[in-house]
Amino acid sequence: MNTNQQYDEAINSCKEIFLKKTADYGTSWRVYRTISIVDQIYIKAKRIRTIQEKGEQKIGDDIKSEFKGILNYAIIGLIQLDINNDEIEELPVEEVNLLYTEKVAIAKKLMEDKNHDYGEAWRDMSQQSFADLTLAKLLRIKQILKNQGKTLISEGIDANYFDIINYAVFALILIEEGKHS
């Protein structure tokens, strides 16, 4: 199986969860502001790091499910940046599906471009690094928010979310391959 197929499989498993939760709960996540989405991802990444450091967990959700949650919250973050209208609270599942697919296509293209230049270096990275890189991206987003969304030279909030999506996919692929437990 090649990287593109593995990427699609990881995304499809996340998307299935996302759309089922959308059917169950609607788009209740529409009330989240950017900082709330960042905090949701932070909680998941911090939990992964804690499990990695302690070597045990007491709550049933495993690291794989936490990476799936991180990915889905990053998609929510990107959708929220685009809609930017608090009055639209409920979106139909079909529209959510299209928006999800659109964001994933952009993330996948970014992954393909970076894989071209970096030679799939992520395949040799540790699961710990994916958690740490995610946490660093979240701190960057927090700083951008403190700067009222402006950057002097750096990429914006959306670029950080796209990187977080790809880190989560890479972790899921490596977990599936048995390289990360």
Structural description of this entry:
The protein is an all-alpha fold. 72% of the residues lie in helices and 0% in strands. The chain has helices at 3-25, 34-54, 63-83, 93-118, 127-146, 157-176. Helix 2 (34-54) runs antiparallel to helix 3. The radius of gyration is 16 Å and the shape is globular. It starts with a helix and ends in a 5-residue tail after the last helix.
How do you describe this structure in short?
The chain is an all-alpha fold.
Mind sketching the topology for me?
Blueprint: H1 3-25, H2 34-54, H3 63-83, H4 93-118, H5 127-146, H6 157-176
Keywords:
mainly alpha, single chain, 181 residues
> How many helical stretches?
6
Q: What percent strand?
A: under 5%
Percent of residues in helices comes to: over 70%
Give the radius of gyration.
16 Å
Q: What's the number of extended β-strand segments?
A: 0
Overall average pLDDT: 95
Largest sheet: none
Structural class: mainly alpha
Shape designation: globular
The helix/strand series, from N terminus to C terminus, equals HHHHHH
Are there runs of 5+ residues with pLDDT below 50, and where? none
Question: Could you give the distance between the termini?
Answer: 20 Å
